[in-house]
Design goal:
Six copies of one chain form a homohexamer. Chain A contains eight helices and five strands, in the order E-H-E-H-E-H-E-H-E-H-H-H-H. Chain A is an alpha/beta fold. Chain A has one domain: Rossmann fold, CATH 3.40.50. Chain A has a five-stranded parallel β-sheet, with helices on both faces. In chain A, helix 2 links the parallel strand 2 and strand 3. In chain A, helix 2 runs antiparallel to helix 7. The longest helix of chain A is centred in the N-terminal third of the chain and has 15 residues. The model of chain A has no long low-confidence stretch (mean pLDDT 90).
């Protein structure tokens, strides 16, 4: 029996309902799924609040809860400053995969130039589910909870994620510039 | 219910019967296990023949076959040239863990200096099961197959691992020095 | 006798009167002070004109001139692109310290997540003393000299710092884009 | 006979008519010319669409076609995040050179601080020939072809460069943020 | 007309008669040749005495002197610690090539796993012409001159290469350990 | 008044009596001394047991105790894998210096190729005072204490350095290979 293995990459800051729906759609087409966690080295930043380890937790617990019939691998992928070697970088860290699921034009371009099959999927409702909006809601005490799967909510609460995001957000509006990498 | 999560790290070049026994022993003590794949960026070298992705396959398939009652996360850990920040590096890439299982003195030291709990476990039979011996046997057409779980054997065959190792091994004995990083 | 050692980090581009006042305030509370020079690798940029070596000079000469009763260590800290390991990075480069002085929310957050004591101090008058304003004044032939300690003025004059800043500033307004890292 | 060797650096995204004219002007003053290809590691980005290898092709073919009496070396120069070591970085990768041709204030400053001779040359007509405009024209199906030497046009067509740029440009306007390094 | 472009990589420490003969043999088979200079970032070490810039000079001057009917590109290739992305790394820095010439088993393996055509060529007389022997002869005032093309001899004399090698060699035999990267 | 500033670099693993004597000799010739701590990022290794921060402590406390009439700066210098840019790297991190004190042939060569003045000083008694012997003595419960200044002894005791070294040393003799960077 030949196993079909898909690949889906995102930053998952955090893993939200839009991501979950994509995973469930892909689950109907493949036997196994590699979920690449992009910008794995980043955390504690307004656009990248959670560590790779925290994001692995969010994804694994969500998939477990949904009881999907799908073998998944969640693989942290650290950034590499060279787009032209990025496909090799991903391939060496992940189990071999047959088809890439993406709606990101750069990802699609890079995999296609490398001769791989990419499936562009219809977009989930971005207006509601974009990561930026969810992070913004966390900072401003808005309604983010309905936008993420409940296991993600639990992880965020466990690590005191809302408070982390709020505190970090102040670094950007005040003029300090004296923080890490600043 | 509180989950106890263990951490076990190795290079797994390849994942062998000794590693499998360690995992099964730990499985009796914890609810979940994070398996860190060290030197994740290395491959195609005599001491590090397999990519992180290939090693993830070996581990996941072996655990699946044994049907262990254990949630596992396999996380590739790239080397970092600074021992003093290595613990933070590991922690940021992995789900939070409570206890480290190791018999490596440096690993034990680093985690203990960071104030974490480490359990030193009795060694499996190293004479037979050391990675070095297994890789040597692959190069010399020796008896390596009984020393690894059968799913590992399948992965190695699928990627033509024996031939890769043999070819790479010639780079060291011939005087070329003109290869990558050489 | 137990020594209390404080830690204060900044980019010090340049070290100005606001920084000096903070150091003098901390001097009353600790026996020794580690001054971390952030973004140590950066220089010759509009927001980061001075090298780490030049900034060490500014700080050491100012403290010497003020004749403070305080043992100080000035330690260049290169940026690291991973906030989650930044605390370890700092700790491994510096003498052990007991208390962190900071008003930067990200710095405060990172040290607190690592279980360390942070003291948030009342802000010096930022409107006057922000680094950005001082650098702007240098570019535009404005009144920057009263805003820095006189030994800092001497260092800047010795390295022809005003002219360096003015020349670099032109790289941003002209459309070249052909410079280093550009 | 003493050979005079010049140095000219740019990102050459792409190599255009303005660059060609500069090279032809320099050719009258030196015997040999080192052309440094800056940001060599970057590609597949809106401001940096072409790989170093592709840019080497553009330059070499153009110089060959013009039949200049000039020995040229085209050397890819990867970015280095430290301006203060950038001159050493360039010097170690290139044949020794006597005079630098540049109109970039940062490049001029860095070489002069290192004690080297820099010749600032009169600007070619930037309004027409800036790389930004040419890339913009590619994305919007505008008139870019007259702005580059014909061998550059051929290279861009061979690698399907227009389509690459258009596809990448969509990554910036859509809200994905899930691509490489994003 | 279709151009056939070959690729030949080495460290060229220094470029010697064996390398020259290989280039002349390949010249009969291809129209253009990309010469990759491996370990481009290394220099001032016993096994890697010359900078990439110095090696570019050696190669270019030798090919010019022999008046070969061959377009050549000499491209410095910095080491990358990940064999699995090395092929992509090389490809992004070089003009596209059709066939690889190598006798290094690791290079052959990596290109073949990437699906590229590799031609293994008969070895030149390694006993005489190995780089190690030539460098050893330089240190010990031995007969290295007949083993390199005369333009290489000139480059080495111009940069005082013999003396550099002798001085560096003492770092290894004395017990200092206090040098760079030591 | 013109200040003469010297530069002295070592790994100082640990700072021992030989190093102290060199510093006292240099103190008679210069007004200020920059002490570069090489391989600053390394620690917890048999040849590099102590962090940069720990080594700063050793040096500063020793100089303070001796009450030398000498302004000193201790600057951690992380390794850089490129000898040809190493001098620039050091210069950008340190206050400007006039004369280099070294007995390491590579250091001498690199500074001289950069056009700087180097003073080779007569060796202290290496047989007794080499770092290797001192570290060996620590591992084997030998007589290392008389070979280091007493403030260094105190630092080592405070951080439990003997035990650290002993534990790390076991990583090399056992066959684990599963530690960091291994």
């Amino acid at each position: 029996m030949v196993v079909t293995r898909g690949f889906f990459i995102g930053r998952f800051q955090p893993f939200h309902e839009g991501h979950r729906r994509v995973v469930e759609t892909i689950a109907e087409e493949v036997d196994e799924l590699v979920i690449g966690i992009g910008s794995a080295g980043k955390s504690h930043a307004v656009d990248d609040p959670f560590t790779a380890g925290e994001r692995i937790m969010m994804i694994t617990k969500t998939i477990f809860e949904r009881d999907l019939d799908l073998v998944t691998y969640t693989v942290p992928i650290e950034d590499i400053e060279r787009n032209s070697v990025w496909v090799s970088h991903v391939q060496s860290l992940c189990p071999r995969f047959d088809v890439i699921y993406s709606h990101n034009p750069l990802v699609i371009r890079l995999f296609r130039e490398a001769g791989l099959e990419v499936e562009e999927f219809p977009m989930y409702d971005r207006d509601e589910l974009e990561g930026t909006r969810i992070r913004q809601a966390m900072v401003e005490d808005g309604e983010w909870r309905p936008l993420v799967p409940s296991p993600v909510e639990e992880v965020i609460d466990e690590i005191d994620g809302e408070e982390r995001l709020r505190q970090i957000a102040r670094s950007d509006t005040e003029a300090g510039h004296d923080g890490p990498s600043a």
